[in-house]
Every structure is written in C-alpha cells, then in structure tokens.
Write a structure and sequence with these properties.
Elements lengths: L14 H24 L3 H19 L3 H9 L14 H4 L7 H13 L1 H8 L1 H22 L11 H14 L4 E6 L2 E6 H20 L9 H18 L18 H13 L8 H4 L6 H13 L3 H12 L11 E6 L2 E6 L7 E2 L1
Antiparallel strand pairs: 1-2, 3-4, 4-5
C-alpha cells in the first residue's frame, strides 16, 4: 500500500460521484463509438472527445472539480496501487483550462489527421495510447513521491509527433511554427517542439525558471512513440519513409488509404441470393448486373449497393437489408443479424 488512502478512490465515491464519472465516460467515448460505426477519423473523434469532456468539466460539471478532478488525475505516488490504475488513462482527458486543451488539440488535429491517413485508424489510436502512457510513466519516474495532480493529453500529442517523425519525417503539414502558419516538414516541427522542451527542462534544472508544465511527460510521450512507431506502422496504408509531401488534406496518405480500401473490396462473382436458391429478378437483377459491371471503384460500388439494398431482402430471414460503410468500403448487412448477411 502506498499511503494513497488520503487520495479519493473508488470506495470513497458517492452516488453523485458515480453519476458525474458516468457522464464523463459517456461524453469521452461517444465520439469514438460514432467514428467506428461510421468509419470516420479517429483523430477527429479524439479532438471532439477532448473538447466535449472539457466543456463538461468546465461548464456543466459543477461539483466535478471538487472531487472527481483529483480522482481522475494522475497522482505519481499512487500508481503502484491497483485501485488507482485508472489514473494513467483518465488523466489524459482532464485539463486545467481551455488554453491547455486547445494547445493539445492543435497538435492532434494538424499532425494527427494526416498521420492517421498514413497509418490507419487502429495503428493511430495505439500510438495515441502509447504516447499518453509514455508521458505519464516518464512523469511518474521523475516524481515518484509526488501528490501533485498531473493531467492533460500532452504526452499523447507529443507521441503523435514522435511517431510521425519516426515514420514519415519529410511529410509537410500545415502547422503554426515560429509565428508562421505554413507547410513545414514534420522533422522540423518535431525538432523545434522537442528542442523547446529540452531547453525549458534545462532552465528549470539550473534554477533559472519555474513551470507547472510537465515537460518530462512531453518528452516521455514523444520518445516512447518514436521508439515503437516503425514496428507499429509495418503494413500501414503508406510505406515507411515514403518521401511524398502531404498537406493537411492528406493527398498522398489518402491515395494510399484509398488503394488499400479498394484492394479490400469483396468479390462480386457470387452472391448470397443465388447461393440460397433465391435468384434476383426484375429491378434487383438489373442492379446486380450493373454492380458487377461497374462496381470496381469505391464510389460506384457504394452507389449500386445502396440501390440494391432497397430492392432485396435477407436471403436467410427475409428481413430488411441495409448498407454500411467500413472505412470507405460499403457492405450490405441483414438488419436482424450480421450472421445472416454480410456481403460482399
């Protein structure tokens, strides 16, 4: 036991505390659930999640700050107590104010979106988690006996820069640097931001300055993500060290992701209605024929599948059929069960 009895834990929560934390979790997770269902950007879902949590924390939380702010923050002296393990993750969604959260969101949006296009959503989110854990671990190792709360997504934001630096350092992204917003190479952005952190740490070490910013957490998130990024990025939509420039629109990364999505489209050679002995007739048969003739591109396949969904029923249960996007790939599902129909 670590002496963390003085810190709030799960046993000390009241009903109102559980309600406040339940709302916190719902607000934080909702953007990710929508992003997964709709196949949209996880990086942008993260931005929305952080904004919504901060809005709840600052505007709607009321008593949230009095107890749960400390309960969800990282307390380095408590990390070896399993009952406080949640703090290593939840601290990344708690911020000291709007300026704090907007500074992290800036990096997550401007560098995170094109990085996600490069490596894909699942790999991107893994990098994000590695960054936030690397930052919290580094801060804890430097201040093992501290009861001062540490909070924010800075380690995760720096982890994004570290991963981008490791895998595609020559990409150019729109970013505010040296008072100018323009397309800078990722290596230059990372070097400048990392150099500034090292300089600030040196100033504090020399007793020439004071800061309540967790500079070591920034460094820890950057370095751990940088060290693991190339291993994680193997098999990503974009080849490692691809030298093509990329803007915030993500032209090169989008092309790579599109090529991957096109390659993942299922075969149209056979269909579940024919296999079930329920040959399509009339308009359904016509649409199926057009789908096979023109469905070799993502957009045309989606268009014909959406039309087909209006004309057919599930070959197993005769239930409604609906189209759903998985990334950029459209698939037909049975409304009752995915086991009945998931085609192509």
């Amino acid at each position: 036991m670590t002496g963390c009895a003085i810190e709030p834990d799960w046993m000390g929560l009241s009903g109102s505390d559980f309600l406040a934390i339940g709302i916190f979790l719902a607000v934080a997770l909702a953007p990710y659930i929508v992003a997964v269902k709709q196949g949209t950007s996880v990086a942008l879902a993260t931005v929305l999640s952080l904004l919504l949590v901060t809005f709840y924390q600052m505007v709607l939380g009321m008593g949230f700050l009095e107890f749960n702010f400390r309960f969800l923050s990282l307390i380095p002296a408590c990390v070896d107590d399993p009952i406080h393990a949640h703090r290593m993750v939840t601290a990344a969604w708690i911020h000291a104010g709007w300026i704090h959260v907007l500074g992290n969101i800036l990096v997550i949006a401007l560098a995170g979106v094109p990085l996600e296009q490069r490596m894909g959503s699942k790999r991107w989110f893994l990098i994000y988690v590695i960054g936030l854990l690397g930052g919290n671990i580094a801060w804890t190792l430097l201040h093992p006996d501290s009861y001062t709360p540490a909070l924010g997504a800075s380690g995760a934001a720096f982890g994004i820069l570290g991963a981008y630096m490791a895998c595609w350092p020559n990409d150019k992204i729109e970013f505010p640097l040296l008072f100018f917003i323009r397309a800078w190479p990722v290596w230059m952005i990372a070097a400048f931001r990392l150099g500034l952190e090292v300089y600030n740490m040196y100033q504090i070490e020399q007793g020439e300055g004071f800061s309540n910013v967790a500079h070591m957490a920034h460094l820890g998130g950057f370095m751990l993500a940088w060290a693991l990024a190339r291993l994680i990025a193997k098999g990503a939509p974009s080849p490692l060290d691809d030298a093509a420039d990329i803007s915030i629109a993500g032209s090169s990364a989008s092309k790579a992701a599109r090529d991957t999505a096109t390659a993942n489209m299922g075969s149209l050679d056979s269909d579940p209605w024919t296999k079930a002995g329920k040959e399509l007739e009339g308009e359904g048969a016509r649409i199926m024929r057009k789908l096979r003739e023109e469905g070799d591109e993502l957009e045309t396949r989606r268009a014909w599948l959406e039309e087909l969904a209006e004309q057919v029923i599930c070959p197993v249960c005769d239930g409604e059929v609906f189209p759903q996007l998985n990334g950029e790939v459209c698939t037909l599902y049975c409304a009752h069960s995915n086991k009945h129909l998931r085609w192509p």
